[in-house]
Amino acid sequence: MTKKRIILAALAGFVWLAAGRYLIHNVWLGSEYMNNPLLWRSQSAMLHRLWVIHLANFILAAAAVLIYVRGIETKPWPGQGLRFGILLALATAVPQSLVEYFVYPISYRLALDWIIGEGALIVLLGLLVAAICRPSAR
C-alpha cells in the first residue's frame, strides 16, 4: 500500500463524511433539530466551532484508513469494505447514538435516524476506503 493511496483515501473519506453529515444533519434532520432548539447550540455558535467537526471528520477518516490497511486480505475488496464498514458503524455510529439518546432528552425516533443515517454513511465509508486501498489499484 503506497502512502499516496493512504493519503488519498483519508482525504476522500474526509470529504465523504463532511458531505454526508451535512446532508444527514442539515437537510434530512434539520427540521427535527428545530423542534428542540434549546438542546443545540445556535447556528452562529456552531459555525464558530466548525473547525471541530472538520477535525473530527478527518480523525475518523484517517483512523478508518489506517485500521483498514492493516487488515487487508487477499479477498475481493467489496466484501472486505462492506464488512469493515459494518464493523466500523457498530463501533462508532451505533453506540454514539445510543449514548446520546441516553444523555439528551431526544425522541427514540431521532436516535434511530442517527443510527440509520450515520450507520449508512460509515458503511459506505468502509466501501470507499476499500475501493481506494484495494491491492490491485496501483
Structural class based on helices, strands and sheet pairing:
mainly alpha
Q: Mind telling me the C-alpha Rg?
A: 16 Å
Profile the largest sheet.
none
Terminus-to-terminus distance: 9 Å
Please state roughly what percent of the residues sit in beta strands, choosing from under 5%, 5-15%, 15-25%, 25-35%, 35-45% or over 45%: under 5%
Number of separate strands: 0
Describe the structure.
The longest helix is centred in the first third of the chain and has 26 residues. Helices cover 80% and strands 0% of the residues. The protein starts with a helix and ends in a 5-residue tail after the last helix. It is built from 7 helices and no strands. The chain is mainly α. The protein is elongated and about 50 Å long.
What brief labels describe this structure?
138 residues, mainly alpha, 7 helices, elongated
